[in-house]
Design a protein that fits this description.
The protein is mostly beta strands. The protein folds into two domains: 9-110, Immunoglobulin-like; 113-218, GOLD domain (Jelly Rolls), CATH 2.60.120.680. It has two helices and 16 strands. The strands form four sheets. The protein has a four-stranded antiparallel beta sheet, with no helix packed on it.
C-alpha cells in the first residue's frame, strides 16, 4: 500500500464517527423548570436531549424531597415538600442503542406564607366574630391585633374540637388567648393539622368595639 496515498474523505469521516463514545451519542441539553419554588407548590420540569442517532428515548426521574406526581417521558410534575430548604431533582435519559446521559438540578424551596385573616371591623356587644380555616402541623401561626376598647375582649385561636367545647360553655385549651386591646404580636407553632377557629370574643362587653386583626401561617 502506498503510504503517500491520501485517505478518502468519506473514510476519514467514518473513522471520526466510530471514535465517539456511547455517552456522546446522547446528551442532555437542558432541564427546564423553576429555580425557586414555594413549599407545597406543584411545578413542571422538562428534559431536552440531543441525539446523533434518531430513536426513542426513555427518561427516569428522581427527587430528594417532595414527590413526583406523574412522569410523562421528558416532562414530569413535582410537588414540593412541606418544609423549606435545598432540594435536588435528577433525570437520566436512555436511548435504544444503550447510550445514556444524566443531569441533576439543584434549587431552593422557599417558605410558604399564607394570610388566612386580614380584617378591620366592628363586633356588636355580647357577640363575637369567628373565622375557620384549615391549618397544618409545623406551620407558625403569627399575627398582630388591636382594638379601640379597654373592655376585656379576647382574641382566641383553638382547634376545632376545643372550639366546640368553648361554644358549649365547657373548659377549652387555646393556642392563643390574649386581650385584643393589647397591641402587639403573637405566635406559636401548630402541633396538628386540621380545622382551626379564630374568635374575637366580645360576649362580655356591653359596647360595640372596633378591631383589626392580621394573621399569617408560615411553613417550616
Amino acid at each position: 500500500m502506498d503510504r503517500n496515498r491520501p485517505i478518502p474523505v468519506l473514510f476519514l469521516v467514518l473513522l471520526l464517527g466510530c471514535g465517539r463514545s456511547q455517552h456522546e451519542m446522547l446528551t442532555i441539553e437542558m432541564v427546564d423548570g423553576p429555580t425557586v419554588v414555594t413549599a407545597r407548590d406543584t411545578v413542571r420540569f422538562r428534559c431536552l436531549v440531543k441525539q446523533l442517532r434518531p430513536g426513542p428515548v426513555d427518561f427516569a426521574w428522581a427527587c430528594s424531597t417532595g414527590r413526583l406526581e406523574w412522569n410523562r417521558g421528558h416532562t414530569v410534575r413535582w410537588q414540593a415538600p412541606e418544609t423549606s430548604g435545598r432540594t435536588m431533582l435528577s433525570v437520566t435519559a436512555m436511548d435504544s442503542f444503550g447510550s445514556s446521559a444524566a443531569e441533576t438540578l439543584r434549587f431552593a424551596v422557599a417558605k410558604r406564607v399564607v394570610w388566612p385573616i386580614i380584617w378591620d371591623g366592628a363586633v356588636k356587644p355580647y357577640s363575637c366574630a369567628r373565622w375557620a380555616d384549615s391549618m397544618w402541623a409545623g406551620y407558625v401561626l403569627s399575627g398582630r391585633s388591636g382594638s379601640d376598647s379597654a373592655y376585656p375582649v379576647f382574641l382566641l385561636v383553638m382547634a376545632d374540637a376545643e372550639y366546640r367545647k368553648w361554644a358549649a360553655g365547657q373548659p377549652a385549651q387555646f393556642i392563643v388567648r390574649r386581650l385584643c386591646y393589647k397591641d402587639g404580636s403573637f405566635g406559636d407553632t401548630l402541633r396538628s393539622t386540621g380545622l382551626f377557629h379564630v374568635v374575637i370574643d366580645n360576649t362580655q362587653s356591653p359596647a360595640e368595639t372596633n378591631f383589626w386583626l392580621r394573621i399569617s401561617l408560615t411553613s417550616p
